[in-house]
Design a protein that fits this description.
With about 325 residues, the protein is an alpha/beta fold. The chain has helices spanning about 10-15, 30-45, 55-70, 85-95, 125-145, 180-200, 225-240, 245-250, 255-260, 260-270, 305-320; strands spanning about 25, 45-50, 75-80, 105, 150-155, 205-210, 280, 285, 285-290, 295. It has a single domain, classed as 3-Layer(aba) Sandwich (Rossmann fold). The structure holds NADP nicotinamide-adenine-dinucleotide phosphate.
Amino acid sequence: MAIYGAETTTDEILEGLDLNGRHFMITGASSGLGEESARALSNAGATVTMLARNQDKLDAAVERIKTNVPMAGIQTGIVDLADLSSIRSYAEGFLQKETTIDVLINNAGIMACPFMQTKDGYEMQFGTNHIGHFLLTNLLMPAILKGQSPRIINLSSAGHTHSDVNLEDPNYEKTEYNAWESYGRSKSANIHFTRELVRRYESELQSFAVHPGVIITELGRHLTPELMEEMVERVKARSTSSSEAKETGGLPFKSMEAGAATQVWAATTSDLEENNGAYLGDCQVGVEGGNPSENGYLPYIYNEETAKELWALSEQLVQQEFLSN
Ligand SMILES: NC(=O)c1ccc[n+]([C@@H]2O[C@H](COP(=O)([O-])OP(=O)(O)OC[C@H]3O[C@@H](n4cnc5c(N)ncnc54)[C@H](OP(=O)(O)O)[C@@H]3O)[C@@H](O)[C@H]2O)c1
């Protein structure tokens, strides 16, 4: 097993790998970690379907990749994860045209926004980060199950430490909204979803949840000085292993190439066969109780009952049941 770490880059992960003939689909690929993953995977020969909600931003991202990788095999699609009808219509169109997806990287995300709702009335962070990906993944499952060693990678975050999911009031109808708590709930949901996918489809696919590290991207667009201060306090409080992290609020920033490396590793490595369903950080398997700024996670994210209940709640919210076949 190769030894990787916080500074390993996407190109280092893919060195020597030939991804010709493999099809990767990435949500939220119009910027940040999704775009960098698309660049690196297409540079290694993969066909990449880049999904985003904004056509102009997506076109600009494709343009940047083609400048860097002229032969890149890129396909695109428009899907708004905050709108169930947009997801349904994209998935239906995709399945009519194409048969297989080898790896789906559920990368799109929104962080710490003010209280907002999706088109269908769900709280925006839970609705986009979890519910949108829950529906998209399940609708695309026929194509994923036909993939070669299929995988589903869900972008989570050390932010899962802000809160576990709230199955009683997922859309803040009764409780007072807190932007970081809501992000935490949605990023915990990404991990429970990963675990339940593996429980249901264990012999048929692999799935991993990824904390990419801290990378300056457009994800921070909703941050105010107050929210930054609250985050630093939360990070200081949760830091377990590094005294520097405790003092500074521990935000060891990564480059884009190092930030996207863990999801690219999860999507391509053969080193994780024994770890199906794992939470990953810094290109390593997660460690319960370790430093969340690295690859540490809190035990509640591996609770099997919560994962089953979240799946049932998600089915209720999208008004569709998905059976393991
Ligand atoms: N950057 C970090 O430090 C960090 C740390 C931990 C976890 N993560 C996770 O990493 C993932 C990627 O984030 P990033 O840092 O690369 O941020 P980013 O540059 O803001 O990328 C997020 C992508 O998601 C898209 N998106 C947002 N809402 C959407 C919707 N309703 N429908 C479809 N697409 C939507 C955005 O498109 P628009 O631009 O059109 O909104 C954008 O393409 C996220 O899941 C995030 O939670 C990031």
